[in-house]
Specification:
The model is unreliable at about 475-485 and about 485-490 (pLDDT under 50). This protein has two domains: about 1-200, MFS general substrate transporter like domains (Growth Hormone, Chain: A, Up-down Bundle); about 250-490, MFS general substrate transporter like domains (Growth Hormone, Chain: A). It has 21 helices and no strands. It is globular, with a radius of gyration of 23 Å. By secondary structure, it is mainly alpha-helical.
């Protein structure tokens, strides 16, 4: 595999997936600094001192506003790709992301918490869109035999962003009232570099150029990324034309209704549903609080959080090797089963800590959370971002990715909004077991009967494998609830 593909993967994910992972954890260790900023802003502009619980509620809404923007960003994916192409859509989201980060920096200097909250909505919008478009662009420019390794770069970048965010936002580093804006300034610098490199050095994907009718540029794009001769590029282009010309673009509604896309869309959404309801959302956002609840000090909890994030990042680094060896289906099913077992132990240990306060329980809890993150980083973490692209062809890929992204952002928002109230009502152990045992169990059973192996397979071969699987098990019976249309419509 040529270095250009690696460089493209690093550049594109540095401007998209990295920032999503970074923003997921940034507000956790630096929470006190942001609430201090919120309070100072309200006092300055409204001459009012609010109670702590009200400040906490406002901050919770501000954190959640990221996912409000992300939900809307999910529905912009199809529009951006169809009007701007893969590369053009990425550039548009990079620019929007850059502007939103600068607004966050500006909010500090004019002491306007409202502007910061607005910047988080825009940040969520651009992050969700770029996170979904990134694997589509990488999928299009990568040869079939290398898509596993390149596809994993999205998940690896999310993990790296989480590691860096959890470390740099610690109060001991830059997570303080007078230094948090530096974090955003540094993030803007990374994004600006990625934007310039993408805009100047990498061509549009051949699929997008082909849809625009520019075959000459499409051939040049294939030659650039595949490092092949002109004759080989023409042959590859002819194969792509066969898939593009013989079918019509499939829209957001019809991707659920057409027999040739319905099953793949449902499978992709269930993969994302299981991934989000595995418990990763809570561990990303509340790991420090969980560690503190079992007796660790605030400082020790922060370091433990950074430690397990680093461990998960190294697991993500070896995930391309693992996925190429074991394939998508086996790896995803085994990791989901492992996450389910870890969740059972975490819930039991949280329950045991309410009765017996011992160091052993704290150590075991850290161990199973670390094991959870390793398993997540090896399989579902990276796989959930590009499995949709492998399940669908060029005509339905962007529509399906829109729904997968929507499922991701919506479920994460629901979990983050519901976990703390559920924890208050039922306690940590029971709320954890309810949220993260039943959903992942259902997802694992469903995927066992329906998830095909997509490694080195064309969309046609994937569809044939799905048909073979569904003939062996009953899990597809509920598909009949969806209306099916024979005619393809935009």
């Amino acid at each position: 595999m040529h270095w250009r593909l690696y460089f493209a993967a690093i550049t594109v994910t540095a401007g998209s997936a990295f920032h999503y992972g970074f923003q997921l954890v940034l507000t956790n260790p630096a929470e006190k600094a942001f609430i201090h900023f919120e309070n100072a802003s309200i006092i300055k502009h409204y001459s009012t001192q609010l109670k702590k619980d009200i400040l906490d509620d406002i901050w919770s809404v501000t954190v959640a506003s990221f996912f409000v923007g992300a939900i809307f960003g999910s529905f912009s994916i199809n529009f951006l790709i169809e009007n701007l192409g893969r590369k053009g859509a990425l550039i548009a989201t990079f620019v929007t992301n850059f502007v939103s980060i600068l607004l966050a920096v500006l909010s500090y200097f004019i002491m306007a918490f409202e502007l910061y909250a607005f910047s988080r909505i825009i940040l969520g919008f651009s992050n969700a869109a770029s996170l979904a478009i990134c694997p589509l662009y990488l999928f299009d420019i990568t040869p079939l035999q290398n898509r596993g390794k390149i596809g994993m770069s999205t998940g690896i970048s999310v993990q790296f962003g989480s590691v860096l965010g959890s470390f740099i936002a610690m109060p001991q580093i830059l997570g303080t009232f007078d230094r948090w804006w530096i974090i955003y300034l540094g993030e803007a610098g990374i994004l600006f570099i990625a934007l310039i490199i993408l805009a100047l050095f990498f061509p549009e994907s051949s699929e997008s150029l082909l849809k625009q009718g520019n075959e000459e540029k499409a051939i040049n794009s294939i030659k650039f990324f595949h490092r092949c001769t002109n004759a080989e590029a023409v042959k590859i282009l002819e194969e792509k034309k066969l898939h593009t010309v013989t079918q019509t673009k499939i829209g957001l509604i019809h991707v659920w209704m057409l027999p040739e896309t319905q099953s793949q869309t449902i499978i992709a959404v269930i993969v994302m549903f299981g991934t989000m309801f595995s418990g990763i959302s809570v561990l990303n956002s509340f790991a420090v609080n969980i560690f503190e609840s079992v007796g660790l000090t605030s400082l020790t909890s922060s370091y433990a959080n950074v430690g397990i994030c680093i461990l998960s990042f190294f697991a993500a680094l070896i995930s391309p090797i693992v996925i190429d060896r074991f394939g998508r289906r086996l790896l995803l099913l085994c990791c989901f089963l492992g996450l389910l077992i870890c969740n059972i132990f975490i819930g039991v240990l949280l329950f045991a800590h309410n009765i017996y306060t011992t160091v052993i329980i704290s150590i075991l809890l850290i161990f199973f959370i670390a094991l959870f993150l390793v398993l997540f980083s090896l399989g579902p973490g990276p796989l959930c971002y590009f499995i949709t692209a492998e399940l669908h062809d060029i005509n339905s890929r962007s529509s399906a990715q829109t729904w997968t992204s929507f499922a991701q952002m919506t479920t994460r928002a629901i979990i983050l909004a519901g976990f703390l109230p559920l924890k208050t009502a039922l306690g940590s152990p029971l709320s954890y077991l309810i949220l993260f045992i039943v959903p992942i169990t259902i997802a694992t059973i469903f995927l066992y009967f329906n998830l095909p192996e997509t490694k080195n397979r064309t969309p046609k071969e994937v569809k044939e494998e799905i048909t073979r699987l569904t003939q062996k098990g009953p899990a597809f019976l509920f598909y009949s609830a969806f209306p099916k249309h024979k005619n393809v419509s935009v």
